[in-house]
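Give me the 3D structure for Hpt domain-containing protein.
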Amino acid sequence: MKKYQDIFKTKINESFVMFKQQETIRKGDLYQLVHQIKGTGASIGLDILSEVAETQLLYMTDIEGERLSKHIWMSIIETIEAALQQQAELPPLPRELIRQEPVLLISSNNDWLMRARERIKRKGFK
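Predicted structure for Hpt domain-containing protein (126 residues):
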């Protein structure tokens, strides 16, 4: 899992470097990136990062206009960068401390159920 977390953190930082070269950016472009950070972060165990990204998404929905000025988007990026740093300082939770409870997956799509089951098993769950 750490490998995927490191790859994802690198991709986030690369995206931020590209944004920082501009004076204004499209709100939709940053929203899409922050939404990806929220979802992917949650799915690969970067919970703090995911929660902070969610708060930034809520903040962005209240911002008017199609383009964001540098002081607005920089505050969003800096908040997420701080969460990345905070997440990096936390040691991973030992697997034996993670409580595993049964999960019931219900779907009319059997192919999806089988793929989901395999993904869950690959992550070490029974």
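The helical segments are 2-20, 27-43, 47-61, 70-89, 110-122. Let me know if you want a second pass.
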